[in-house]
Design goal:
It is built from three helices and 17 strands. By secondary structure, it is mainly beta. The strands form two sheets. Strands 1, 2, 3, 4, 5, 6, 7, 8, 12, 13, 14, 15, 16 and 17 form a 14-stranded antiparallel sheet that branches. A three-stranded mixed sheet has the order 9-10-11, covered by helices on one side. A hairpin with a 2-residue loop joins strand 5 and strand 6. The longest helix has 20 residues.
């Protein structure tokens, strides 16, 4: 009798999972490109209390890496000039062509962002008893106080991978400045193929969105612009009561609104953590996102929640966190 009940419970669980995963239109909202919530003014609402200071992690960050030496521009050859046959005077020396000015290397800056790190999240769909594990997402980054590379790998797992296989890599590259993260390029790869790309041209003050090699859209580049990935870490670096963000996804470029919810203590795989909670105000029929940033760990994201247009909730929760070579200890459930 016990075996029959166990088999019945397993069958019911499998049936529920298949129903969830096989439902029409099922998808992970961050595996498809999110649409901007209209042209909203992006700002963090004034906090009820002073902004919490970005506190150092328990691991001392590695010393800033020395900036690599810049290569010396190759000197152009002096053109040969034949002396005039009819003149006994020596020909004037040919003027050397002026070398083009080299692009200045970005000056190193010190930001409260660990030089390298890795965060692995589980991805679930639904809330409460209806929560189903559908994927995982791994964030990795590295910077040398001048340039950075930030990447996420998100993929379905388990039954979701069997019925709805998906693998998406998002990459953000750029420089670091006094204002924080300054993206130069953002790329999206789906199942190993480059799908979308965004170029931030700060010389021409223009942002260009590509679909493959085709230009999808061009627009004036607003100061402080971010991509959909870098914004998560830029918000963590911003200790301001208000911030405006123009955000580029692979398909859109628009304004997003954020509101400060306040300090919250949340249960995590690492124990209870103090976090700063911010969110986008989701209107009916629009997407929304909540971020929980760990106050004692450089405001790194430990929980990310997405609300899609159908009202479905997808949540990412950190289960592994490694910063500058030190791993945050996990606790048994």
């Amino acid at each position: 009798m016990t075996d029959r009940r166990l088999l019945a419970a397993l069958f019911l669980s499998l049936l529920v999972h298949l129903t969830v995963i096989g439902s029409p239109g099922w998808r992970l909202p961050f595996l498809d490109e999110p649409e901007p919530s209209g042209m909203l003014e992006a700002r963090l609402a004034p906090r009820p209390s002073p902004a919490p200071a970005l506190k150092p992690s328990t691991t001392r960050p590695a010393a800033p890496k020395p900036r690599p030496p810049q290569p010396v521009p190759e000197e152009r050859a002096v053109p040969e000039v034949a002396a005039p046959a009819a003149s006994s005077e020596p020909a004037p020396a040919a003027a050397l062509p002026s070398a083009p000015p080299a692009a200045p290397a970005p000056a190193p800056v010190e930001l409260p962002w660990p030089h390298q790190g890795r965060i692995r999240f589980t991805v679930t769909r639904g809330e409460g008893e209806q929560t189903t594990l559908v994927g995982q997402s791994t964030h990795t980054w590295r910077h040398d106080d001048a340039t950075y590379t930030l990447q996420t790998l998100t993929e379905t797992v388990g039954l979701a991978a069997l019925f709805r296989p998906a693998k998406v890599v998002q990459t953000s590259e750029g420089v670091l400045g006094e204002e924080g993260i300054v993206p130069r390029e953002f790329r999206v790869e789906r199942m190993g193929q480059t799908a979308e790309r965004v170029r931030f041209d700060r010389d021409a003050m223009k942002v260009t969105l590509f679909s493959g090699e085709r230009v999808r859209r061009e627009a004036p580049l607003a100061a402080g612009s971010q991509d959909i990935l870098s914004q998560i870490y830029q918000i963590g670096l911003t200790a301001a009561a208000r911030v405006e963000l123009m955000i580029a996804t692979g398909k859109n470029y628009g304004r997003y609104a954020y509101e400060a919810v306040g300090e919250e203590k949340i249960a995590t795989r690492f124990g209870e953590l103090r976090t700063w909670h911010v969110k986008t105000p989701a209107l009916p029929g629009e997407q929304g996102m909540d971020l929980w940033l760990a106050s004692d760990y450089r405001n790194l994201p430990v929980r990310i929640r997405y609300l899609d247009r159908k009202g479905e909730v997808f949540e990412q929760n950190a289960v592994e966190l490694e910063v500058d070579g030190a791993r945050l200890a996990t606790q048994d459930k």
